[in-house]
Amino acid sequence: MELFVSEGNPHCLKVLAALEVTGVQCSVQYVNHEERVVPFLSRPTLPALLLPTGLHLFSSNAICRYLFEVSGQECSEFCNQWLEWEATDLQPALLQALYMAVLQGKGSEVSTVLQGPLKFLDQSLSKGGMPYLTGEAVSVADVVLWAALYPVLSDSSQALGEHKSVNGWFDRVASIHSCLSAAQKVLQGKGLQGMKSYMQRQPAPQSSQGRNTQPCNCNPIEGEEGERAFSEEELEAAILNWSKGLSTSPLATDRQHPILPQEGKRNILVTSALPYVNNVPHLGNIIGCVLSADVFSRYGRLRGWNLLFVCGTDEYGTATENKAREEGLTPQLICDKYHAVHSSIYKWFQIDFDFFGRTTTEKQTEIAQDIFWRLHKNGFLVEDTVEQLRCEQCQRFLADRFVEGICPHCKYPEARGDQCDKCGRLINAVELREPQCKVCRQTPVIRSSKHLFLDLPKLETQLEQWLEKSTSTGDWTTNAKQITRSWLRDGLKPRCITRDLLWGTPVPHPDFKEKVFYVWFDAPIGYLSITANYTDEWEKWWKNPHQVELYNFMAKDNVPFHSVVFPCSLLGAQDNYTLVSHLVATEYLNYEDTKFSKSRGVGVFGDMAKDTGIPADVWRFYLLYVRPEGQDSAFSWADMALKNNSELLNNLGNFINRAGMFVTKFFEGYVPVMELQQEDKKLLALVGWELQQYIQLMDKVKIRDALKHILNISRHGNQYIQVNEPWKNIKGGDTERQRAGTVTGVSVNIACLLSVMLMPYMPEVSQTIRNQLNAPQSCVSTMLQDNGTFVCSLCAGHRIGTVSPLFQKLEADQIEALKKRFGGQQPEDEPSKEKTPQSTASTQPAAVPAPAAAVEVVTVNGVDPEKAKQLTQAVAEQGDKVRALKAQNAEKTVITAEVAKLLDLKKQLALAEGKSPEPAPQKGKKKK
Amino acid sequence: MALRELSSLEKYLGLKKPNKYSTQGDKKVPVLQNNNGPPLLGLATIACHLAKEAKRPELLGDTAESRAVVQQWLEYRVTKLDSCTKEDIKFILKDLNLYLQDKVYLAGNRFTVADTLMYYGIHPLIVDLAIQEKEQYVNVTRWFDHIQHYPGVRHHLPPVVVLKNRIYTSRHH
């Protein structure tokens, strides 16, 4: 055991006194005040006791208590109370008193500061009527308090007033020889002055004891990075760029359809995984494919690449057939309906497709059948008889999603016939345990049926050669490479490309007349057919691997189809197809701490985002900020509000707005003359560096990481304004006014740069900024060229437009309401309860929602109590109905429909509770 | 606030009869009205008293060393944490993060009242952290998430979402 102390430190007086009084064996080391003894504390803290276990105690009271305990004197509750009081009440007062007496020479005021605590101590001692604080004998409390008070009470120059009981007690403890000898060691007989060097190193005590729970908006990156140093050459280069001015090259944003590959240009074809038509996409789907692809496409166009971005809805397959049956429509009508839903969602999110098509077109049949015949002709298709599940009741083979059962790999109970949602492995429907027909819930029987297979093993060598090249030269995300590698490692098997279904591209082979193509053979061909619907010259994109770079965006579950299955189809078809050069796959986005779930109503779906009143650009920003790049991430309402308020409002928006306002207010709306000083040059270099980082990351499709550099720039900008205070300088003399002008001019130019960098992320905000600054369009194409050049695009004399705030605060109650609204129908989350062993051991399935409990949670206090009351009743009834159906093991489709009704009722109820904008018509008529 | 903590602690300890409390002074220091003796003053003191009342002395530490560690963190809570300024927050989180690097609980491998009171006290700080900051203080976050899910502890406080996976793994500097 080892005790570390420093001279003149009043806390060390406590522990040394305790050590002497208790007589515990312990070596004492005197160290410097600045010595960092406790390894986990960033500020030097003394005294410190190194325990035999290797742990450090850093609180003087805890050390004293420990010393007393090992010497056999345990701490009583009243001891505890005195020690706590000493730490919370006496110490702050003492610190202030010592600060005044030792450093400020205001010894006369010490008594005022200590009046309160001394009075309290005096009263307690006299009321207790005992010689020591906790009784007849000296305790750790006496030693600690005495040692704490010793420096002030022993100093005769301090007139501390008459505290009779305190004085008596103080003298009693002082008569213990060990106490005084400890005091002698620490203060060296110099009294208060002995503490001078210690006190000088203490932060000035706060006069007010207010707790400040404001969030620390400290930026972790910035906080640790410190100042970036630039060489003279780097500064010169920054100035050179700055003075280059805008280029006169034509606008990169002008698009002339149809966009076709051009000689001598970087020709880039971007696809986003085709969303399945019958699902409304949730935020995870949106960030995973279309939004990521959109940001990259917008960026690519700014870079001057010749870029085409296509996407569309994937419409064939069993899921559509199921949905059609549920809604009583034909598959085509279902597709039409949901295609429109998708289109409008993406439009709202400002996804700027060059073409958004669909897979149920003539071109799809034409191209898919062509690829089929080519594969057939080249001998890459094999015929085989497969055992298939057939539902006798429905008179049909149960392909893919028509059958559900227990996953043979991970035992997930709701695995589909083609793939398990839980473990992601592909399944052959006959391998499912306890299979059930999805329509009628009967157990299907196994029958054989003749099918065609794509002979993947035969194509494996070709595939590997191509993969080797593509993954080494292109930007494949790590997960894409890993998933592909694991597929190849497991060995490729022939894959069935036909299905016993109606809703699909018909197989043209006469022997397979009644069959259609398996969606995963068919769907990726959608990229080609959608392009063909965009332009007749589609082959210039798709049969042109030497001129075209293909980027595929998707979530990781789609990787094998884009890296193995589809490339094999195209390789086997031998028609010089363009294969993927860059495969960009995201991980999954969760919702708060759970998964998105349509059936449970958990999470925000595309069509609901606009109803939140939060602008599309803010949604885009936050989704991109938490983009699951490299790791799963989660959408969190609280975090979204925080990011909006701290990053958009206080950082980015604040900077841009201030820069513009200074021009308007101080310089009548004209950009002032700028005379760059060293500090400004440094800033230009720093901003230029961030811009280059942004471009390097964006070129590699690191969308989330690049966004950080935009925010860094506005942080630098805010700091620059804060340090240079143009609002003060503007009131000064000529030099100061000149300085204010330079700072304002540089700032407003940074704002202009920010608007360009923001364009891929927040197109509307970006345009708004340029409108406010009246920025020339050519600034857009100039700054993102090459490695990135930060030029002065708003020169002296440029007239800016009207500046107004860009972002709005998201209030806590607003966010709380949204969180509730999208939190699903489960009862209030009670993690503490869920984690208890009893409930984990119970046989109750955890995921079953309890509608009754949800109804209880609803509180009726809105503008329309009557309606709310009726709806509450309706919700309760519907809840009962759902539970009854579930209890009877009713058909899943029936339950799903009833649950949908329940959710709808709840939505109405929420509206009636006060979120409805309409006045309450029946307010006066209250039923009894 | 302190009273709500104490009532949560009582619930956690399974004390049948709730105690009577009042507060004292501007800082609203909790006071426990004790039938058998003088009142007890101070959050940490009362918390220790409650643990004893519930016959759960192990919650105060099972060795002299761990008892000292528990008291140290209780003191830390009512001093450093309760009067921290904006600038302090960063240091507090950084220090705690380093401290918790090799520990499950504040006093090592056993859950103690120090965990409870530190959890209650640090909650307002954690609530305000962005995902990125939470990841920076990953040990604090891990400990915090563990304690908030510790059966019966959370009570009066809302749960804070903690991501299990890091999303800001690479720093490009």
From TrEMBL, chain A:
Give any Gene Ontology cellular component: cytosol
Localization in the cell: Cytoplasm
Kindly give the SMART domains that the UniProt entry links to this protein: WHEP-TRS
Task: Enumerate the Gene3D superfamilies for this protein.
Answer: 1.20.1050.10, Glutaredoxin (3.40.30.10), HUPs (3.40.50.620), Isoleucyl-tRNA Synthetase, Domain 1 (1.10.730.10), Methionyl-tRNA synthetase, Zn-domain (2.20.28.20), S15/NS1, RNA-binding (1.10.287.10)
Per UniProt, residues of the GST N-terminal domain are 1-75
List residues of the WHEP-TRS domain. 867-923
Query: A Pfam family name for this chain?
Result: Anticodon_3
Where do the segments described as Disordered lie?
200-223, 822-850
Concerning SUPFAM superfamilies, the annotation shows:
Anticodon-binding domain of a subclass of class I aminoacyl-tRNA synthetases, GST C-terminal domain-like, Methionyl-tRNA synthetase (MetRS), Zn-domain, Nucleotidylyl transferase, S15/NS1 RNA-binding domain, Thioredoxin-like
Query: Which part of the chain is the GST C-terminal domain?
Result: 72-206
Biased composition of type Low complexity is found at 840-850
Presence of keyword Aminoacyl-tRNA synthetase: yes
The Swiss-Prot or TrEMBL record annotates one GO molecular function as:
methionine-tRNA ligase activity
Q: What is its EC number?
A: 6.1.1.10
Q: Which PROSITE patterns match?
A: AA_TRNA_LIGASE_I (PS00178), GST_CTER (PS50405), GST_NTER (PS50404), WHEP_TRS_2 (PS51185)
Q: Which domain of life is it from?
A: Eukaryota
Q: Please provide the record's keywords in A-Z order.
A: Aminoacyl-tRNA synthetase, ATP-binding, Cytoplasm, Ligase, Nucleotide-binding, Protein biosynthesis, RNA-binding
Q: Where is the composition biased (Polar residues)?
A: 200-217
Q: Does the keyword Transcription apply?
A: no
The family annotation for this protein states: Belongs to the class-I aminoacyl-tRNA synthetase family.
NCBIfam families attached here?
Answer: metG (TIGR00398), PRK00133.1 (NF001100)
Protein name, UniProt field: Methionine--tRNA ligase, cytoplasmic
Ranked from the top, the taxonomy reads: Eukaryota, Metazoa, Chordata, Craniata, Vertebrata
Automatic annotation (TrEMBL), chain B:
Among InterPro entries, the record links this protein to: AIMP3/p18_C, Arc1-like_N, EEF1E1, Glutathione-S-Trfase_C-like, Glutathione-S-Trfase_C_sf
Q: Which organism is it from?
A: Amphiprion percula (Orange clownfish)
Q: Name one GO cellular component term.
A: nucleus
Which PANTHER family has this protein been placed in? EUKARYOTIC TRANSLATION ELONGATION FACTOR 1 EPSILON-1
GST C-terminal domain residues:
49-171
Biological process (GO) annotations held by this record are:
positive regulation of DNA damage response, signal transduction by p53 class mediator
Upper lineage: Eukaryota, Metazoa, Chordata, Craniata, Vertebrata
Q: What is this protein called?
A: Eukaryotic translation elongation factor 1 epsilon 1
Alphabetical list of CDD domains matching this protein: GST_C_AIMP3 (cd10305)
The record's Pfam families line, in alphabetical order, gives: Arc1p_N_like (PF21972)
